[in-house]
Amino acid sequence: MSQSEEKQSSVNLFSPENMVDPYPLYKQLRDEEPVHYLEEMNLHVVTRYDLLRDVIKRTDDFSSKYDQFMGGAQMEMFNTLSDEQKAEAFKIAQGMIDIPPTMLTLDEPEHTKYRSLVSKLFTGGQVKKSEDDVRAVIEKNVLAMKGKGKIDFMELFAFPVPLEIISDRLGIPRDSESRDFFYEAATSAASALKMAPVPPEQILGRMQTAVDLQKFLIELVEDCRRAPKENMISILSNSKLLDDGGERELTHGEILSVLNQFLVAGHETTASTFGWAMLVLCDNPELEEQIRGNEKRIKTFVEEVLRFEAPVQGLPRVVARDTELGGYALKKGDVMMLRYGAANRDERQFDEPDKINIHREKAGMQMAFGSGVHFCIGAPLARQELNIGFFELLENYKNFRLDPDWGRPVADPSFILRALPELRIEYQSV
């Protein structure tokens, strides 16, 4: 093997083993090729903090209209199906409403047209008003841990807390049948975004669940149009969108598009951060006493975990016109992959980036929530959940450790998201 071939094979960023632990390779790329062309995926991967910030600022050069890239990835999964399974998938797809791009995959001014409809629900003031409701959900799940001593933290706390909170915010009915279905469907939608290889039968199952979820949500949309309520579904159902033909209601597809983004951003990323933060506490027992009861230090701890294990490791951009980035030439139509997880451990931006520092100044400069016009709209709510969550967990429990009867937890190998499927811990009451 030649030296160039050896180098190329050593930077297979999206091999399963590197997706499980990408950080050594992130460092290599930051130092040697901060914009790296990954030939097998036709992607230009950006790993350095300053270059990511540059891309995000230069919205005329780098577009967020990357639907075609995501569609191509889904088509690759579809091609793994047998002819019989493809026929079944096609039949399922006939019942699916087309989803147009809205917030995440649009540029200005179209992006703001949709974002402004729901942004009022996630202002600092609105999030503060909902604090009692958020705290009640957290306290209920903290109480569920009493007397157990050993649990799967992801199953008992990290997943259900943000899922219940975003369900309330969206306006999902509280009856058990509606909630059970929605929780299952939202988890399925998040799993699809991981863009990890799955068995063909699971692809078909996800497709059917997606169709069922669309029908469920459209029924709620029509209910809210008949009797408006105070929730996100109702706001979207009754809002007017200004376009060339004047004011109009949002289509079902547009409403579903916005809601789909909140299904993932509203629970999966927060759940992941709960898990990674608990693993940090298990690995660094001295942190417990340093942050217990101290809201300021808990906030820095949360920001550090978001930096240390970004729940969204990366998102694409499309080059809108011939340009360059850090001296690297790019052509119109090139697809880039911004790796937030790599930028968050860039030693050029953060001292000792591979360590959690609860005294770090400007810890909020981490990019787990993105930056610029596409900064995560739900960031205030996610921070509220995480800050209150760890305050209450540490008020009630201590001596968090990994359960010695189980091996060390391993991240899901995922192209976009970074999560722990399970986290088995032991602990004691305070």
CATH architecture of the largest domain: Orthogonal Bundle
The structural class is: alpha+beta
How many separate domains?
A: 2
**Which sheet architecture does the biggest sheet show?**
5 strands, mixed
Report on the structure:
With 430 residues, the chain is α+β, with helices and mostly antiparallel strands. Helix 15 (252-283) packs across helix 17 (295-308). Residues 1-9 have low confidence and may be disordered. The protein has 2 domains: 1-63 and 313-367, Uridine Diphospho-n-acetylenolpyruvylglucosamine Reductase, domain 2; 81-310 and 382-429, Cytochrome P450 (Cytochrome p450). The protein has helices at residues 3-10, 16-20, 23-32, 49-57, 67-78, 83-93, 110-119, 124-129, 131-143, 153-158, 160-170, 176-193, 200-226, 232-238, 252-283, 286-291, 295-308, 340-343, 379-396, and strands at residues 35-38, 43-46, 62-63, 150-152, 240-243, 246-249, 314-319, 323-325, 328-330, 335-339, 397-402, 424-429.
Layout of helices and strands:
Blueprint: H1 3-10, H2 16-20, H3 23-32, E1 35-38, E2 43-46, H4 49-57, E3 62-63, H5 67-78, H6 83-93, H7 110-119, H8 124-129, H9 131-143, E4 150-152, H10 153-158, H11 160-170, H12 176-193, H13 200-226, H14 232-238, E5 240-243, E6 246-249, H15 252-283, H16 286-291, H17 295-308, E7 314-319, E8 323-325, E9 328-330, E10 335-339, H18 340-343, H19 379-396, E11 397-402, E12 424-429
Parallel strand pairs: 2-10
Antiparallel strand pairs: 1-2, 3-7, 4-12, 5-6, 7-10, 8-9, 11-12
Helix pairs in contact: 6-13, 9-11, 9-19, 11-15, 12-13, 12-15, 13-14, 15-17, 15-19, 17-19
